[in-house]
Amino acid sequence: MTTVQSAAAPPTAIRPRVVARTGLYAVLAANVAVVAYFFAQAGFASNALIVIGRLTGLSSALIMAFQLVLVARLPWLDRRIGMDRLTSWHRWTGFSLLWTLLAHVVFISFGYADGAGVGPVTELVDLAGTTQGVLRAIVALGLILVIGAVSGRYARRRLAYETWHFIHLYAYVAVVLAFTHQVAVGTTFTSSSAATAYWYGVWAVALGSVLLGRVVLPLWRNTRHQFRVSAVVPESDNVVSVHITGRDLDKLPAQAGQFFLWRFLTRDRWWQANPFSLSAAPDGRSLRLTAKAAGEGSAALRHLKVGTRVFAEGPYGAFTTLHRTRAESLLIAGGVGVTPIRALLEDLDGRTVVIYRVASERDAVLYDELRDLAHAKGAELHLVTGPPVPDKLAPHELTRLVPDLADRDVFLCGPPPMMNAVLRTLGDLDVPKQQIHFERFSLAG
Fold this sequence. Notes:
Blueprint: H1 16-41, H2 48-70, H3 75-81, H4 83-116, H5 120-130, H6 134-151, H7 153-158, H8 161-168, H9 170-185, H10 193-225, E1 228-234, E2 239-245, E3 259-264, E4 274-277, E5 286-292, H11 296-299, E6 310-316, E7 329-334, H12 338-347, E8 353-358, H13 367-377, E9 380-385, H14 395-401, E10 409-413, H15 416-428, E11 436-438
Parallel strand pairs: 7-8, 7-10, 8-9, 10-11
Antiparallel strand pairs: 1-2, 2-5, 3-4, 3-6
């Protein structure tokens, strides 16, 4: 095994995640202020219901644009905040968007119905038939309602990612329809040349971000690097490592701890994208992923042929040494969650402690590599085996293994139940949140 010695970035008092999050909030707050100014400048209708309806409509437009930025997979944001957190924010702003859109329709319908002396449903039907852009807005609302329904926890757990992702693509159709509605009937949009230029700018930035992060960057990187499978190595009965080569990999901005969305361009799997972490720190010559057979996609990796073309989206993730706050670290891995942990160990200097939690020794994939790497780096390695109960990473057990736990950064990756239990333990031990680093695979459409 070849160990790549790379100097880890020193811990910094300036937390990249805080900087990025504060920047996003500041940009959003500034845009809210600008929208409020243009709304007031356009004047108010005599009917309070219409005023509220227009304001909720503008809020919906701003939220929709913000949502696009959250899922654009822009590298600067992704490296500092992480796709999982950005996806979580996208989900909650999505429900906010749904409610503001419904409020917009309700208040506008009741407001205009009050002036016309008809019912709100009759007025809405009349607006759809006589006012340019209203029918398109109703179609956009219907699409967003469908997307909101499949984004609920119950539906999301029962849909294949590809199905959910395909339905989610209709959100872009809804965005275009909503924008054309705003152009056609938005009083604030047309109130002044400055307001018109502002809204065109907002939508250009939002849609441009998606085009850049989701289309241009992946196509450019794959065209440049020409990824191919160079080796397929079984690690155990149900775990396999896939080695990837390509051109100019030293120019690929990948870090230990990150993951890619991998598409192996075979006849039956080209359409399926799977998120797998790098299981070795990038060395400029090759990449390696290691996956456990948990479904058809991951099980099929064992049968890949050398030379298979690969389309890789990424690198993604904030689970890197960029977020270190302390000179010393604790790495906790569970099961196949050892893959990014093993890669991170290559990037860390200082007195590092590694805890690898598995049910039995036969489940400890990559353990020989981890042991050799820990020896080479001067790290302390603990293999913890046994059933989930009793909890062998409970507070007293964890402090026994790592007495100076509170003075270390903690990097955690493993199955969700194990991660949740360890996070509770770290909370019980009063480990500061800024020293705890973890990431979940949450993919936004």
